[in-house]
Amino acid sequence: MRENHILVDIQDHVATITLNRPNKHNALTGDMMEDFVSILNEMNYNSDVRVLLLTGAGEKSFCSGADLGGMSENNEQHILTYKQHVSKYKNCLLAIHQLKKPIIAAVNGYALAGGLGLAAVCDITFASESVLFGAPEINVGLWGMMISAPLIKTIGSKKTYELFYTGKKVNAIEAKEMGLVNAVYSDSKLMEEVRQFACQLAKRNPTALTLGREAMQMIQGMDYEKSLNYLRDQVVILGETEDSKEGMNAFLEKREPIWSGR
Is 137 a catalytic residue? Predict the structure, then answer.
């Protein structure tokens, strides 16, 4: 990728995606956001990848949001660039939402503005003890428009309003209490613990993970009875897959399953 601002490492069916601008708090440039979407699309169709792990390079920041350097200049070019950044960030959130595989966030350091949105939109989010989350846009006269979608979905409107109105930062424990973070680990243990979790998840039936994640996305906001009917159909579809049959056979034969992804 351009300038190696996003790194990808695939091991044990886990693709670790690292935002790699530590000297700029891993702020997202336009090129980075384009590359990020391309990488997610590529991982979707890479049969060797079953789980994605998103993190940031360095110890100071997971991601501080979009790189808006120079955007305060009120001229047509900067306004156009700002609009393009917003659209590219939207594509990042949408690409994560539409993934066919689980994605886990390992949040280290600051997760602010767009970085907070990335942490919120991932399926499971782990954080180090020193993490600070925040939506500081209001402090400079702005509003976290794009990140409100994943945040309201994850922590509800009351907590989202609180973060947006105050612009305050919350630590990892506070973030866990509000439902943004699943677990908190020491700074030195974060990546070890998250990699272990991801590797265990990658041993599960990949077809069940794909269809199950898709089903959970689909039923959100759906009428209750309609969601039950939809899920009933998905049970049948999943049960007819090769991987589900292999899982049952392996259980009965007391052996490890061999997944095909079908």
Answer: yes
Q: In this predicted model, what pLDDT tens digit does every residue of 219-234 receive, in sequence order?
A: 998 999 999 999 999 9
Q: Is the pLDDT of residue 73 over 90?
A: no
Task: Kindly name the residue from 34, 42, 129, 137 that is annotated as catalytic.
Answer: 137
Each residue's pLDDT tens digit, 144-172: 999 999 999 999 999 999 999 999 999 99
How many CA atoms lie less than 13 Å away from 125 in the CB half-sphere? 28
Residue 168 CA to residue 161 CA, distance in Å, equals 11
Q: What is the pTM of this model?
A: 0.94
The token pair that represents 118 in the structure block: 């990335």
